[in-house]
């Protein structure tokens, strides 16, 4: 079984849209979770990343009887890596896509080059308030990719914006062991976008010292929404990871 955790503010429906095509035919059962205060899940914990992680671990304790595969994107990958550090007995492998490594933006090592050229008007259909984010986030810069990302952002339950704001803006947004030098020995795949202006790719490469069975891939023409920008490559890399989890 693989348990999939979402990007910040996104839902299990969006996570399924991102990952289900990559897992198709892989012979693994997929479970998609809404984090507390996200989608249809109530904000039933304190607004800290540690409390969110503990809530996911409590769900795993109740619902699984052996270690599971964990997959996540962005904040979901940040939490998945945290679970592997804190509760390694729950985790048999990690798929970390566009992972958060440093939760505070000012601590991240982000690419400094100009993003690729894009067709005129590629962001015209995006709400004005989202255009700066998408301009920084996307490496495959087309109106079709923008439409796919917008559908994902709008899918699933409404979430609790107050809780999400308190979580993201709070003093305990970072996990307390974010910088811990702990090794996870299971099979890991770390997949990043070369033009990811949100999480970058350099911090993720440095994190590979924690994963002796890890594969690192940086994908050109991909940014922070890599599953929607390069779905065929994500599928290939995911299938490779699934194969390694069985060896």
TrEMBL record:
Signal peptide: 1-16
Superkingdom of origin organism: Bacteria
Domain AB hydrolase-1: 16-234
Keyword Signal: yes
Keywords: Signal
Signal found in the keyword field: yes
GO MF: catalytic activity
PANTHER family: HYDROLASE, PUTATIVE (AFU_ORTHOLOGUE AFUA_4G13070)-RELATED, MONOACYLGLYCEROL LIPASE
Protein name: Pimeloyl-ACP methyl ester carboxylesterase
């Amino acid at each position: 079984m693989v348990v999939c955790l979402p990007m910040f503010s996104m839902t299990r429906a969006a996570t399924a849209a991102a990952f289900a095509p990559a897992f198709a035919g892989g012979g693994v059962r997929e479970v998609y979770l809404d984090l507390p205060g996200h989608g249809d899940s109530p904000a039933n914990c304190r607004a800290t990343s540690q409390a969110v992680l503990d809530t996911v671990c409590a769900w795993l304790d109740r619902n699984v009887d052996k270690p599971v595969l964990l997959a996540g994107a962005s904040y979901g990958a940040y939490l998945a890596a945290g679970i592997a550090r804190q509760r390694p007995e729950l985790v048999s492998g990690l798929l970390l896509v566009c992972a958060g490594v440093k939760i505070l933006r000012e601590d991240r090592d982000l690419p400094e080059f100009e993003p690729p050229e894009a067709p005129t008007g590629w962001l015209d259909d995006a709400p004005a308030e989202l255009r700066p984010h998408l301009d920084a986030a996307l490496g495959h810069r087309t109106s079709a990719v923008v439409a796919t990302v917008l559908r994902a952002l709008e899918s699933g339950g409404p979430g609790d914006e107050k809780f999400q704001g308190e979580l993201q803006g709070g003093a305990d947004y970072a996990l307390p062991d974010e910088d811990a030098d702990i090794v996870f020995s299971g099979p890991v795949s770390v997949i990043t976008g070369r033009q990811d202006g949100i999480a970058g790719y350099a911090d993720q490469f440095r994190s590979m010292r924690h994963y002796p069975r890890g594969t690192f891939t940086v994908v050109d023409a991909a940014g922070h929404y890599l599953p929607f920008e390069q779905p065929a490559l994500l599928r290939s890399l995911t299938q490779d990871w699934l194969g390694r989890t069985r060896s």
